[in-house]
């Protein structure tokens, strides 16, 4: 696990390459919440088929890697339905209100020095840090 | 062509999220746990992703997309209530479970029941955003 940061850097470069391909190819910002949310509320418009194949590929490749046994990682998500539902609702609502998440604001926004992207990232990381600290205090660990 | 590009980008995004470890909620919560055993991996993922993307943004200057008409315009730089409230809500949910939208989709195929429960709740949250947004606007207008 000592080399986790190397895998992180490598995976990050692939994520950035994917975002670059979508930007330079289709002129689109690779925001996970924007693409999924656009499909839900119809704002994807005529680009909905592109959004569907993007989401399908995003779900399919990690599953393939996982079941083929390469770089297998469990997700380790909590089994608590209360946490899962509260977390999911907050992530879904929050990313649509803020118009972006870690990929949209964090990767695509910061890389073009967007003030909104930088401010959003500071707020969600700050809120995440505070939340994990509270969880730790309440439950004595995760 | 546009579909092919979308498939390649989506597929690579999934591979990158998987290999970087971002589909592992322990790793994400470990990054947010700065008062505990801090795990810096996410910072390397972000740095690694921002680097090619910064080059890509420079390449957009004076050009048009390979399979499109124009690049996205610069957003209005205004820091709105929606941006701040939304980002804080997102951060709370992200901290609670350790999943954000990209990894939630990337791990959907093997994340088991917890991953599905989170994903469905996330969709409900997304779908309710227009209504909540309207409430925020009316409250701001009446204040």
TrEMBL record, chain A:
Superkingdom of the source species: Bacteria
Compartments it resides in: Cell inner membrane
UniProt record similarity statement: Belongs to the TsuA/YedE (TC 9.B.102) family.
InterPro entries registered for this protein in UniProt: Sulf_transp_TsuA/YedE (IPR007272)
Main location per the UniProt record: membrane
Name assigned to this protein: Sulfur transport
Pfam families: Sulf_transp
Secretion signal, residue range per the UniProt entry: none
Upper lineage: Bacteria, Pseudomonadati, Pseudomonadota, Alphaproteobacteria, Rhodobacterales
Segments crossing the lipid bilayer: 6-26, 47-67, 79-98, 118-139
Keywords of this entry: Cell inner membrane, Cell membrane, Membrane, Transmembrane, Transmembrane helix, Transport
GO cellular component: plasma membrane
Membrane topology category: Multi-pass membrane protein
Automatic annotation (TrEMBL), chain B:
UniProt cross-references to InterPro entries, sorted A to Z: DUF6691
Keyword match Transmembrane helix: yes
Sorted UniProt keywords: Membrane, Transmembrane, Transmembrane helix
Transmembrane segments: 41-61, 82-104, 110-129
One Pfam family named in its UniProt record: DUF6691
Domain of life: Bacteria
Protein name per Swiss-Prot or TrEMBL: Membrane protein
Native source organism of the sequence: Pseudosulfitobacter pseudonitzschiae
């Amino acid at each position: 696990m000592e080399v986790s940061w190397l895998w992180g850097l490598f995976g990050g470069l692939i994520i950035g390459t994917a975002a670059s391909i979508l930007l330079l190819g289709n002129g689109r910002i690779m925001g996970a919440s924007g693409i999924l949310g656009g499909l839900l509320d119809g704002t994807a418009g005529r680009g909905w088929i592109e959004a569907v194949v993007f989401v399908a590929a995003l779900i399919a490749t990690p599953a393939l890697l996982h079941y083929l046994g390469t770089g297998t990682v469990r997700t380790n998500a909590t089994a608590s339905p209360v946490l899962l539902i509260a977390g999911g609702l907050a992530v879904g609502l929050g990313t649509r209100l803020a118009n972006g998440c870690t990929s949209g604001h964090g990767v695509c926004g910061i890389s073009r020095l967007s003030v909104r992207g930088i401010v959003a990232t500071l707020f969600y990381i700050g809120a995440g840090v505070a939340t994990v600290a509270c969880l730790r205090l309440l439950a004595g660990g995760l | 062509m546009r579909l092919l590009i979308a498939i390649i980008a989506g597929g690579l995004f999934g591979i990158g999220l998987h290999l970087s470890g971002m589909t592992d909620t322990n790793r994400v919560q470990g990054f947010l746990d700065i008062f505990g055993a801090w795990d810096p991996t996410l910072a390397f993922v972000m740095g690694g992703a921002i680097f090619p993307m910064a080059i890509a943004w420079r390449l957009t200057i004076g050009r048009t997309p390979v399979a499109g008409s124009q690049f996205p315009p610069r957003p209005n730089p205004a820091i709105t209530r929606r941006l701040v409230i939304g980002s804080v809500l997102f951060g709370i949910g992200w901290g609670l479970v350790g999943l954000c939208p990209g990894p939630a989709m990337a791990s959907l195929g093997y994340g088991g029941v917890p991953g599905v429960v989170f994903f469905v709740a996330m969709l409900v949250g997304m779908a309710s955003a227009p209504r909540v947004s309207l409430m925020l606007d009316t409250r701001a207008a009446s204040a």
